[in-house]
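Input.
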Amino acid sequence: MRYTSHMAWRRGTLQTAAVTGLLLVVAAGLPPTRGEAQAPAASSPIPDLTEIWKRRGPIEGRPRNGNPVGNARAIGFSKAFDEVLLPGYDCSPVSIPVLLNDNYNFEIIQQPDRVILRYEKEDIVRTVWLEGHGHPNPGVYDFTIQGHSTGRYEGNQLAIETTKFVFDPRGMHDDYIPSSTQKKVTERYWREGDRLRMESVTEDPLVLREPYRYHFEWERTGTPLTPYDCDPEASGFARQFQPSKYQDETGDRK
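Output.
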């Protein structure tokens, strides 16, 4: 009995010493040996993208597939579409990815549960709802021009996925390549010094033969955004100069 008690005491002493040694190793900042339990890795810091950004151009050396490649449906629509029907004449804004290619500054505002993107172009404001904050999903009828955007931070990047777009007659390109309610745009933004870089992929099985990839970069600017202040009357003034396809050679309407 005395021998058994002595062995039990010895085991307890060894266990205590092992725990004490592990605590000393951790306190000293030394890496634990293989097989020891490790604490969860600290989450990556959120990249600082908050800034007003000025357009530079496509990222050099990044492969991209040029303009969107439309299928027969998209090509037929672009040939039949009349510019006089453009919603832009009524101050209706463009959507992404067309917006990403416009020569206007834009601003990124990072908040704890969302990211706000403000554009000079047509005073567009997009809200990106960050995952993990209990934001409700869009309803079955919640289709909008800018769609519904959700985002997350992945390392040094902000990843955004946008769906729930309405039909847009120039939702892919200014050459009247349309986009459907099936459009999905994935954007990735990251910062390299005073430059902001972005890669986007647009998918739409109803109008595209392949995904449309677009890579772009901006630089910091201290210039505030200039209000666009679209005036519907002034914007629609050009319509009077659009020839009507319902006029004969004399100019009389048929």
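Residues 78 and 176 are 5 Å apart (CA to CA).
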